[in-house]
Fold this sequence. Notes:
The protein is α+β, with helices and mostly antiparallel strands and about 80 residues long. Helix content is about 25%, strand content about 40%. The chain has one domain. It has 2 helices and 4 strands.
Amino acid sequence: MRARVAACEPVGTQTISIADRDFAGEEALLVTVDYGGQVTHHVLVRQGDLLAELFVKPAWDRAALRGLARVAAAILCDGTPAC
């Protein structure tokens, strides 16, 4: 997932950055997107072959986003033998 996010091309004044990683599931990323002052977050969580993307706007604090990712990881565990 990290490589795919890193390969994203920002448009105009947009910036894309990985703000946190490896906090839930087999792999997790907190991606911050700044649209010239308007900030949004994408939380990506992977368990086995399953991936969840959570789009959060307005911005939540990092602790709340990590907690949301842990809940998503637990739900994904029900759908994969990887857990």
